[in-house]
Write a structure and sequence with these properties.
Elements: E1 3-8, E2 23-24, E3 27-28, H1 30-39, E4 45-49, H2 53-61, H3 81-95, E5 102-105, H4 115-126, E6 133-139, E7 148-151, E8 154-157, E9 179-189, H5 190-194, E10 203-207, H6 217-226, H7 233-243
Parallel strand pairs: 1-4, 1-5, 6-10
Antiparallel strand pairs: 2-3, 5-9, 6-9, 7-8
Helix pairs in contact: 1-7
């Protein structure tokens, strides 16, 4: 069984230039995701998929493999995850003659994780071999039934087929609990990718705490405060021991 950490890191970014290698806490942002993958007792390889030679060199410095430079057509602003995941699998199978079963998708923009949670997520899908993928999620504070869209001047509910008049005014507890993906740890099976899907029809939900997601300047400023939280001490100790 081959379990590989797959870390995507495009060179381009609309809101924060060179976001994936922006300094935070004394190290490039991508460092924290490479470190957590290397701390895992289950992950066998840590591979960064990037279209940038600068990011590639930094990723190698911090111990990740960068066996190729991602083709530019898979690294556009509107490129989805499927293209680079498929490219990674095809490369390993054709160029290295390596079969892949699981890809642990770890985004650099979710830098602060606990290794126990990451390994727990991987073990969860390993114990459920019928699952086509796993996604980490957090509970939403409000159900989507409470959200409106605007049509002209007027608000309309999203669920037009709900037979209940003004269903959006019902108590929150009336609706099922809903969840949103949070980027903590996702695991996909190569077999799903080969069927032109990412997550397939049996996607395990893995509930985790919410952690910072880095998208803009304010996120960077807020994330630096998280570095001192005790829950991330093991990650910071690993980084200090191996990279400082």
């Amino acid at each position: 069984m081959q379990i590989i950490a797959a870390i995507p890191a495009r060179g381009g970014s609309k809101f924060v230039p060179q976001k994936n290698i922006r300094n935070i806490g004394g190290h490039p942002l991508i460092t924290y995701t490479i470190a957590i993958a290397k701390m895992s007792k289950i992950i066998e390889r840590v591979i960064v998929s990037t279209d940038s030679s600068e990011i590639a060199n930094i990723a190698k410095k911090y111990g990740a493999e960068v066996p190729f430079i991602r083709p530019s057509e898979f690294a556009q602003d509107d490129s989805g995850d499927f293209e680079w995941l498929e490219h990674l699998i095809n490369y390993l199978e054709k160029k290295e003659d390596k079969s892949v079963e699981y890809l642990v998708h770890l985004r650099p923009t979710t830098p602060f994780r606990k290794i126990g949670v990451v390994d727990e997520g991987i073990n969860y899908i390993l114990k459920n071999p019928q699952a086509t993928s796993l996604r980490s999620v957090s509970p939403t504070p409000q159900p989507p039934h409470k959200i409106f869209k605007m049509e002209g001047l007027y608000l309309k509910g999203f669920f037009d087929k709900d037979p209940r008049p003004e269903y959006y005014n019902l108590p929150r507890q009336t609706f099922p609990q809903t969840y949103v993906p949070n980027g903590y740890v996702d695991v996909v099976r190569a077999s799903a990718i080969k069927n032109k899907l990412i997550h397939g029809d049996k996607m395990l939900g893995f509930i985790t705490d919410t952690v910072p997601d880095i998208d803009d300047e304010s996120d960077f400023n807020n994330a630096t405060k998280v570095l001192s939280e005790k829950r991330f001490d093991p990650l910071m100790e690993f980084i200090k021991e191996h990279y400082d």
